[in-house]
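Write out this protein's structure.
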Amino acid sequence: MCVISFSGVGIDLPDKEERSQMFKTNPDGAGIMIDTGKENLYIKGLMTYEDFEAALAKIQQDYNLK
């Protein structure tokens, strides 16, 4: 079953422990969607938790997210 998390403007992302639990609940991989205000950015096929965290860290840095 899919696990979906949504964080609107001004709302913190789930913490690392929460993200880890979501990944364990759905071990079939993950994806990330970011609305940059100009476009929607999609990253799919993150098949390990480590890949997911690395992609999220890069997005947080590139788009100055909390």
